[in-house]
Write a structure and sequence with these properties.
This protein is an alpha/beta fold and about 220 residues long. The protein is built from 8 helices and 11 strands. A hairpin with a 2-residue loop joins strand 8 and strand 9. Helix 2 runs parallel beside helix 3 and helix 6 packs across helix 8. This is Response regulator transcription factor.
């Protein structure tokens, strides 16, 4: 899942980014609304965690731009204002959820993941294809009943390939969805991760390479 964190308090923004990355999310960070709008033009984010009270381009305007574009990106709005009126106003601007500061980290993470699932309503809660089973909520994966000891990125690649339901997924699409802005698009990161993932499966041929096009399960 690809997430954009938009928060002008750099320490808080960086803390959210670190927590999310430790939990396996691909995260980009913007410290102002103008940068956020530029990024959403370039990247198809699943969720935007958006501080409402941004200087310059206000969070309300960022949210309004996303709503006007009709994109499937979900918006979790953060604000220090916790009144019911503020929440209603924020949701009325097009936000999909609303969380008051200060917040609990587990709740922020849970709400972000829930919005990510809503961004892909066609996906089943548990991804199954043949003998492969993957549970995104519990972050477990098994092959023919054997639990797979996957790293964060291996889990993300397998989840994305299973979610594609047989479609061939280009390497650059995997890089965009499973990694984030710190990834170097010129490296063999995706290929190396797929190779490690294959080595952990009971049948390496489950993940096929389609020459010149990408990978599929």
């Amino acid at each position: 899942m690809r997430v954009l964190v938009v928060e002008d308090h750099t320490e808080l923004a960086d803390s959210i980014t670190r927590v999310f990355r430790r939990q396996g999310l691909a995260v980009d960070t913007a410290y102002d609304g103008s940068t956020a709008l530029d990024l959403v033009e370039e990247v198809d984010y699943d969720v935007v965690v958006l501080d409402r009270d941004l200087p310059g381009v206000h969070g309300d305007d960022v949210c309004g731009e996303l709503a006007a574009k009709g994109v499937r990106t979900k918006v979790l709005m953060l604000t220090a204002a916790a009144s019911i009126a503020d929440r209603v106003e924020g949701l009325g601007l097009g936000a999909d959820d609303y969380l008051a500061k200060p917040f609990a980290w587990p709740e922020l993470l849970a709400r972000t993941r829930a919005l990510g699932r809503r961004a892909h309503p066609e996906r089943q809660p548990e991804l199954v294809r043949g003998a492969l089973r993957l549970d995104p909520a519990r972050r477990t994966a098994s092959h023919s009943g054997t639990q797979l000891p996957l790293t964060t990125k291996e889990f993300g690649v397998l989840a994305y390939l299973l979610g594609a339901e047989g479609r061939t997924v280009p390497a650059d699409e995997l890089l965009a969805k499973v990694w984030d802005e710190v990834a170097d698009p010129g490296t063999t990161t995706v290929k190396a991760t797929v190779n490690r993932l294959r080595a952990k499966l009971l049948d390496a041929s489950v993940i096929q390479t389609v020459p010149g096009r990408g990978y599929r399960v």
